[in-house]
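Reopening this one. Same input as before:
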Amino acid sequence: MGRFWLPLAGFVVLAGFLGFGLTLNPREVPSPLIGKPAPLFELPTLGDPARSFSPKETQGKVWLLNVWASWCTPCLEEHPLIVRLAKDGVPVYGLNYKDKQDAATAWLKRHGDPYVLSVVDASGRVGIDYGVYGTPETYLIDRQGVIRFKHVGPLSPKVVEGTLLPLIAKLRQS
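Same output, byte for byte:
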């Protein structure tokens, strides 16, 4: 009888861990970059490859970095919210991730271009520095260049209204 207690105890512990895991939100991926300076880069812009952009140019602004691609179906789902944020005065910069330049340009022409500008990360190197899991992802960066929020997957009205806009307002006041 005693030899059955150890496997039973192991099963109960494993079931407890699995049960707890089911209560977690898979969209909330912890990022080691939250509270740390956003990785710096210099990439060509999508609209003018002769011009480059670096996050250093946004010092003193609260802004969003939105990772997107023309091949990304969820990016199209969140696009109206990105357009709305831009119209509401939130500077949104795009990081066009592992995409073809002509396809990305055509996608923005077809669906509207809400970005202050988009940079081309054809190799995905900058995406790696930011810990990108896939597209879309959105980062909120404060006036000092520190990442304050990361959202994996398409933004939803609930996330925008309940989390993102209040945090932007708070960061703008500080």
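So the earlier flakiness isn't reproducible anymore. For the record, The mean pLDDT is 91.
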